[in-house]
Amino acid sequence: MTALEFSYALNQMSSSLKPFALKLTKDMEDANDLLQETMLKAYTNREKFADGTNLKAWLYTIMKNTFITNYQRIARRNTFIDTTDNLHYINSTDNIIQNKAYSDFAMEDMNHAIDELDEPYKVPFMMHFRGFKYHEIADRLRIPIGTVKNRIHIARKELKDKLKVYAPQSA
Fold first, then answer.
1. pLDDT tens-digit profile of 50-71?
2. What's the whole-model pTM score?
3. What are phi and psi of 32, to 5 degrees?
4. What is the spatial distance between Cα 132 and Cα 151, in angstroms, rounded to a whole number?
5. Residue extents of the structural domains in the chain
6. Fewer CB atoms inside 10 Å of the end CB: C or N, the chain?
7. Burial grade of 38 (CB within 10 A; 0-12, 13-18, 19 or more)
8. CA 36, CA 87: separation in Å to the nearest integer?
9. Between 85 and 162, whose confidence is greater?
10. Residue 44 half-sphere exposure toward CB, CA atoms < 13 A
11. CA-CA distance, 107 to 104, in Å (whole number)?
12. What are the distances in angstroms from CA 166 to CA 44, 62, 112?
């Protein structure tokens, strides 16, 4: 396969690789970077690709290995060695210590938000929270299963709105 044919085949495969890159990285910019790095590695190593084999599988393998290598590099960068007698490996990002007060406030706010739910939403939500299946809730409350799902959905949405102060902040 000529370089031009190989380049064309890579271009055709890029759209099917992007969802896999996004699944691995869980971030659009990182996925684009991973896709670009995969395509560059594939093109520079095109002589290693054997004609008649599965190009898509070859590219997926390159992408997966590139992701793993990058992840390991980041993990090594965030780890340092403690030179004390014990010689422990310490992950530098785990130095945050939280006391129980924050979780107590959060739990209190959650219980208050649940108590404020209207009864038709609170009862199915709490039953589901305690482990009941949708059909069990529908049988016990004598309402259709679709109504149960809808009420639980509405309860979750209201709780999410009331407790958005606890949502993780994106950087």
1. 888 899 999 999 999 999 998 8
2. 0.46
3. -65, -40
4. 14
5. 3-80, 100-166
6. C
7. buried
8. 39
9. 162
10. 7
11. 5
12. 47, 39, 14
Residue 143: C-alpha distances to residues 67, 118, 127, 153, 156 (Å): 48, 16, 14, 15, 19
The answer to whether 70 and 27 are in contact (CB under 8 A) is: no
Asked whether the predicted pLDDT for residue 105 surpasses 50, the reply is yes
pLDDT of residue 122: 94
- The stretch 7-16 carries a mean pLDDT of 89
Q: Which fold has domain 3-80?
A: Rna Polymerase Sigma Factor; Chain: A (1.10.1740)
Residue 66 CB neighbours (<10 A): 20
User: In 3-state terms, what secondary structure has residue 103?
Assistant: helix
Q: What's the chain's average pLDDT?
A: 85
Q: How confident is the model at residue 171 (pLDDT cuts 50, 70, 90)?
A: very low
Entry field: residues in the chain: 171
